[in-house]
Design a protein that fits this description.
CATH class of the largest domain: Alpha Beta
Strand order of the largest sheet: 9-8-7-6-10-11-12
Strand content: 5-15%
CATH topology of the largest domain: Rossmann fold
CATH architecture of the largest domain: 3-Layer(aba) Sandwich
Number of strands: 14
Number of helices: 17
Shape: globular
Distance between the termini: 71 Å
């Protein structure tokens, strides 16, 4: 008679840090346990659950939180520091009752960043987060505290952007690009989730292994609003939780020595407009910053749509800052390899840091946090009678709002209460935006494959 093995859906455990955050003050523990106003527990619980739920089959944050509504995590003080007591955690984070080591490291990275941001960035009074330079300083300190800026050798960090919902052929291509990057000793930084965020890291691990590189960096940058929908993939070995999407985007461009963009949806469009809006600033005209948009041959039409949309909205000058490479992973890696040498020479000549691009000017329009509401989405200035960088900033906000409505818990709930966000602008831009977004929907780039998509937005042509 065969016996079946019952695998539990949830697990209880106690875990201790290993070199991540052994000690917390009494005040920090009280903050982490407080569910009231100003308390960190709801944020810590949300991010911790996302890390433990890596590999799930949904990108709906609300569904994840509902599925594990009984999940609980508490701080315990003991003789050697602190432990975490976890109840009703997703079983996928454990093997034979023991938490996977990589998952444990990411869990304590969450604890480290939430405590540091609350106490040293928000509450300390050291940073005036209404001032551009102070925002950049805050981003720097968060990254430094996470030890991301410790790298002492040749600049080699390639940021890879792309969608979490991509098809199998596109995913395999991201792995091949990552492999070529790894063979050339280049490290990878992504948004840390699945799809085009995981593929380059997976490929780079093989490239690094073949070159006997044992200290490869697989950096994940995320933020609390998106982490549940895009939980850190298991390859990430340096996770940083930034306070919001704007500081996350700034962190990407400050640490990058080159940037590769794979196919994606509205999140990827948001990133493209953020980057190009910055690079088109005359103050950044001399910046060395290699940017390649790439995918397999079947994705060529996707990039033509992106290229056409860029040219007809923020102008042909945007196309001078990018290269589009189709079905040639080795050429992408060669461009990045040559590009990081140019970045190194430029930084040396201008006495700038290899690990944090201080000289890159970021207009306050790209730094100011955008609160996504129905009112703020409707009042975006989506028309051509303004500077290109301003239009890029508001298009970035429009895409950010759609991301919120698609996968972020507060955005999903806002759509349920008040209906779709409305986007208003001049007819030409609205027609192109409608065509672009309709293409994303048809290609299943808005949600994970197989999930039905109901648009969270409505295009209004003024």
């Amino acid at each position: 008679m065969e016996t079946s093995i019952v695998i539990p859906e949830v697990v209880d455990a106690r875990v201790a840090p290993r070199g991540a955050l052994e000690s917390l003050s009494q005040d920090e523990i009280e903050q982490l346990l407080s569910t009231g106003q100003g308390g960190l527990y709801p944020l810590f619980r949300q991010c911790a659950l996302a890390v433990l739920n890596a590999g799930s089959d949904t990108d709906d944050a609300r569904e994840i939180f509902d599925r594990y509504r009984d999940f609980d995590i508490r701080i315990l003080r003991h003789a050697f520091g602190v432990k975490l007591e976890i109840r009703n955690a997703p079983a996928m984070a454990f093997v034979d009752g023991q938490m996977i080591q990589g998952t444990k490291e990411l869990l304590f990275a969450v604890l480290r960043d939430i405590v540091y941001t609350a106490n040293e960035i928000v509450d300390s009074g050291r940073f005036d987060l209404s001032r551009p330079q102070s925002i950049t300083n805050a981003v720097f300190h968060i990254l430094r505290n996470a030890r991301l800026l410790d790298h002492k050798s040749r600049p080699n960090l390639i940021v890879c952007w792309g969608g979490h919902s991509i098809n199998r052929e596109e995913y395999e291509y991201t792995k091949r690009v990552g492999y070529e990057l790894g063979l050339r000793g280049l490290d990878v930084c992504t948004g840390c989730g699945p799809g085009a965020m995981k593929g380059p890291m997976k490929g780079a691990t093989i490239g690094h292994a073949k070159q006997r590189i044992v200290a490869g960096r697989y950096v994940g940058l995320t933020e609390p609003g998106i982490i549940a929908a895009e939980p850190p993939n298991p390859i990430v070995n340096n996770l940083v939780i930034m306070p919001d999407i704007e500081k996350r985007l700034e962190a990407f461009v400050r640490v990058a020595h080159g940037l590769v963009v794979f196919p994606g949806g509205v999140g990827t469009a948001e990133e493209i407009f953020y980057l190009l809006g910055i690079l088109l600033d005359p103050a950044n005209a001399e910046q060395r910053f290699p940017v390649v948009l790439t995918g397999p041959r079947k994705s060529a039409a996707y990039f033509e749509k992106i290229r056409d949309f860029l040219a007809k909205t923020i102008g042909e000058a945007a196309l001078d800052r990018i290269r589009i490479v189709i079905e040639d992973q080795a050429e992408v890696a060669r461009i990045m390899d040559r590009g990081v040498d140019e970045v190194r020479d430029y930084r040396k000549k201008n006495s700038d840091s290899f690990n944090f691009n201080w000289l890159l000017r970021i207009d306050p329009e790209f730094q100011r946090p955008f609160e996504v509401t129905h009112a703020s989405m409707r009042t975006l200035r989506l028309h051509r009678e303004q500077p290109a960088h301003q239009l890029a900033a508001d298009l970035r906000r429009a895409f950010s709002g759609i991301v919120s409505g698609n996968v972020k818990e507060h955005g999903i709930r806002a759509i349920e209460r008040h209906g779709p966000f409305e986007l208003v602008g001049d007819p030409a831009i609205m027609a192109m935006l409608d065509e672009l977004l309709t293409g994303f929907v048809a290609q299943q780039r808005m949600k994970l494959p197989g999930a039905a998509y109901v648009p969270c937005y409505r295009i209004v042509r003024s």
